[in-house]
Specification:
alpha+beta, 273 residues, Lipocalin, nine-stranded mixed β-barrel, 5 helices
Length: 273
């Protein structure tokens, strides 16, 4: 499998968000009480705002104990323990895929696409330890992620199917009562779900469900289908929390410079050559 390099050079906090707000059809009102009203102008749940998962799923989506990091860094890169977000037991890998996941875990410090600053894909972008912003319009809903300036459009209107696969996929949304349901296809299948090596393939199909459980909380449920790897479909579930700090905004995390030594350090000219 060959990873395609994806560079991210956008400046998210001002320029990109301004464009995305216009594309969504109206601006968000930030963290004001009006911006947190229970309903939008169309009578739908108002999801505008900055949200974040508060769990250890980015380290491992399954239940896990605390783990050491590379020994030379002491406790700095240790993984926190977690109860897991996978519903009803372990991920149902096919036997060969379970062996591949074990191999990924052994190589996680260099092979995880996050370490290389590749875009995180869906659903991992949702529960990375970075906030993300929802900008809600009528025909489009934008989701903008602090990590690597990732972004995606959720098409609430009819659009052609995406011609090619991509890291963030093609998202088509609909409302089922109070729940925003997003069908995600055309994913490149090269992302991992976490730093523990849980992985996916080009046949991945994701269905997300965002359901308000309060003014500032969402229930996030995601169904994973990938017949190339798993014996059946399976689910993850977790709460998402609206960030309520005054003047909260997305900041930059342009990780490309951080990954260059890992990716290209072996190409550096050696002294005396």
């Amino acid at each position: 499998m060959i990873y395609r390099r994806v560079y991210s050079t956008a400046v998210v906090p001002v320029a990109v968000l301004g464009i995305l707000w216009m594309a969504a059809g109206r601006p968000t009102s930030g963290q004001s009480s009006a911006g947190r009203s229970a309903k939008s102008a169309e009578g739908r749940p108002n999801l505008n705002g900055i949200w974040q998962a508060l769990n250890s799923a980015n380290w491992d989506i399954e239940a896990h104990e605390a783990r050491p990091g590379p020994s030379q860094f002491g406790a700095s890169f240790a993984s926190p323990a977690g109860l897991g977000v996978v519903v009803d037991g372990p991920i149902p890998y096919q036997p060969w895929a379970a062996a591949k996941k074990k191999d990924n875990f052994a190589k996680r410090w260099t092979e995880d696409p996050e370490a290389k600053c590749y875009l995180p894909g869906i659903p991992r972008a949702t529960y990375m330890p970075f906030p993300f912003q929802i900008v809600q319009g009528t025909d489009k809903i934008m989701m903008i992620y602090e990590y690597a300036a990732a972004a995606r459009s959720i098409h609430m209107d009819k659009v052609p199917v995406a011609p090619i696969e991509s890291w963030m996929g093609h998202s088509v949304g609909r409302w089922e009562g109070q729940t925003l349901v997003i069908d995600v296809t055309k994913l490149a299948g090269q992302s991992w779900f976490d730093r523990a090596g849980n992985f996916q393939s080009e046949s991945l199909h994701v269905v997300e469900r965002y359901t308000p459980t309060g003014r500032d909380t969402l229930d996030y449920e995601v169904t994973i289908e990938d017949p190339a790897l798993y014996t059946r479909s399976w689910k993850m579930r977790m709460p998402l929390y609206r960030r309520l700090e005054k003047d909260m905004q997305l900041l930059e995390f342009r990780c490309v410079p951080f990954s260059e030594e890992l990716l290209y350090g072996d190409l550096r000219k050696k002294p005396g050559r």
